[in-house]
Structures are given as C-alpha cells and as structure tokens.
Amino acid sequence: MRRPRRTVILPVVPTRFVLMHTSHAGNVGAAARALKVMGFHDLVLVAPRWSDVLRREETVAMASGATDVLESARIVGSLAEALDGVTHVCATAMTPRDFGPPTAAPRRHFQSLAAERPAGIAFVFGGERFGLANEDVYRCHVCLSIPTAPDYGSLNLAQAVQLIAYEWRMALGGFEIEARTAEPAPADARAIQGLLEHWREVLVEIGYLDPAAPKKLLPRLNQLLNRAQPTDEEVHILRGIARAASRK
C-alpha cells in the first residue's frame, strides 16, 4: 500500500524560464519536463524556430507527461516581452563576457537570492546553435555559469534547464524524499519465538544442537534476531529455509 504524498509548502518566488530562439522541438519538451519535476510551470519561448513547437509530436513526446507546462507556456516575439513583471534576470552562458553583468556559479548566487525573495525571477537560456546574444546578456543582472570540466563545458539546452531548476529548487528548500512503500513493521515476539522453536528442532535434527547441553545457542540466536528486527516476511523466509534443511 502506497503512502499518500504529503503536501509540501515551499516559499513562493514567481519563477520563469525563458528559452531564446529554440531550434529543436525535443528540447522544448524536455525543458517542460525538467520544470515540472522541480515544481515550476512558467515557460516562455522567444521567437522559436517553429511557431507550433508547443504542439509538435516530438515536443509532447519529450515532455513525458508535462503537457500542462506546455499548455500554459507562451510564445513571444522579444526578450522584453518575456521579462514583463520580472525583477531579477539571470542569463546562462558557458563562457563569461568581457563586458556585462557579473558572472556567478548558480549555487552560490541562489543562496543569497533565495534569502532576498525577489518579486519575480527569470532564467534566460540561449538557443542551441548560438547561445545568448551579447545584447540579451546585457539585460540581465547576473550571468550564471554552470561549473563544468575545464576542457569540455558543452551542455544540452534541456540539461542546462534541469540543472538550474534543480539548484533553484534546492535553494528554496527542496522537496522531501517520500518512500514509495510503507516501512515494514518488525515481526512480533511471538513470531520470533516460533522461528526459534523451529530452528531448535531442525538444529537438533541435523546434529548441530545437543539438547542435553544446549549452552547459550538459542539465547544468542534470540539476541541476533532482536538486533536484526526481521519482518514477518523475513521470518517466513527463515522458517522456509529451516523446512528445506529438515527435508534434506
């Protein structure tokens, strides 16, 4: 039986993900999936290659169920339109510019940003072919650079979106890990004693235990089981082994 998921109330910071001039429909779908899995839903595309990219078969397939993010996503003609209502804008770029906003690693920047609680934040990602244009970076308050291996820093667009979405979510508090199944309860004392009695019979039968001089074998086994805290299913397994040993 699965546990019901608990509602996790996280700090609310309006967060937007802006994709500039995307040329691959699959990346749009994968980005939507990346947003949803981290609890974000505001996706804006600026002048994508395909005007129907949000409905294309490849987009929907790569979204893998995040169709609600695609349905609420918007397509606009300029970055200025995409940033309407946003007070803090983060560009993403593999290499820093000679001129422009300061460059920061996402995790360190997000720690201070989460404490400030901006009225609206946007993460701007460049297109697959050319990245962000300088004039787009100049509009931003900071340029985020994901720490990568020095000799190879190329990231797929959707991968970059996933990394930024994850780091921002963690800065806001993250989600609790929920077990898929309930923790099994340990077997009760009666079941443990039944297992020990079964073992005693088999151990005598195979000549391992001398009933005339049992010493402390069974109490030691009892202590072992108390430390192990086997479940009812595990007790059944151990008794099944005992039955098989007895038949042999």
- Principal-axis shape: elongated
The third-level CATH topology of the largest domain is Alpha/beta knot
Proportion of residues in extended strands:
5-15%
- How helix-rich are the residues, as a percent range? 40-55%
What distance separates the N and C termini? Answer: 37 Å
Mean pLDDT: 89
Written as H for each helix and E for each strand, in order along the chain, the element string is EHEHHEHEEHEHEHHHH
- List the uncertain runs: none
In the residues, how many domains can be counted? 2
Q: CATH superfamily name of the largest domain? A: SPOUT methyltransferase, trefoil knot domain
Characterization of the model:
With 248 residues, the chain is α/β, with parallel strands linked by helices. It folds into two domains: 15-172, Alpha/beta knot (3-Layer(aba) Sandwich); 189-247, Helicase, Ruva Protein, domain 3 (Orthogonal Bundle). It is built from ten helices and seven strands. The protein has helices at residues 25-37, 57-63, 67-72, 79-82, 106-116, 134-138, 157-172, 189-205, 217-228, 232-247, and strands at 15-20, 42-46, 74-76, 88-92, 103-104, 121-125, 142-144. It has a seven-stranded parallel β-sheet. The two termini are 37 Å apart. The model has no long low-confidence stretch (mean pLDDT 89).
